Amino acid sequence: MVEKRKIKVLVCKPGLNGHDRGAKVLARALRDAGMEVIYTGIHQTPDDIVNTVIQEDPDAVMLSMLSGAHNVLCPIIMEKLKENGINDVLIAVGGIIPDEDKPFLEKHGLKGFHGPGTELKTIVEFVKNNLKR
Length: 133
Prior knowledge:
- The chain has five helices and five strands.
- With 133 residues, it is of the alpha/beta class.
- The longest helix is centred in the middle third of the chain and has 14 residues, at 70-83.
- The mean pLDDT is 93.
């Protein structure tokens, strides 16, 4: 019997924001849902994130942003992923993302905006239903 591989998710905190409780809660919820989760910690640069994606080959990357730098950092991350030929990974962003910024981020390939108060089961289902594999 062939065992199905677990969904692998990278949870990242790009930028200078050090508040990571939400990212840690999300990482635990994804793990409890049967996924393999790698939490990279706080203060990750776009290069750090892309290098971890290259090394770990996740199915999804969940970016947690509270600093307001999402319109700067997310496009850089997406461009660096593209430069490295990575286009088969679900990239989502959560945290404080104003509604008016979402179309800009979607144009750069980000999906799934989950702000404070989003039920964890909603995010788990989002990951399961939107993978590119």
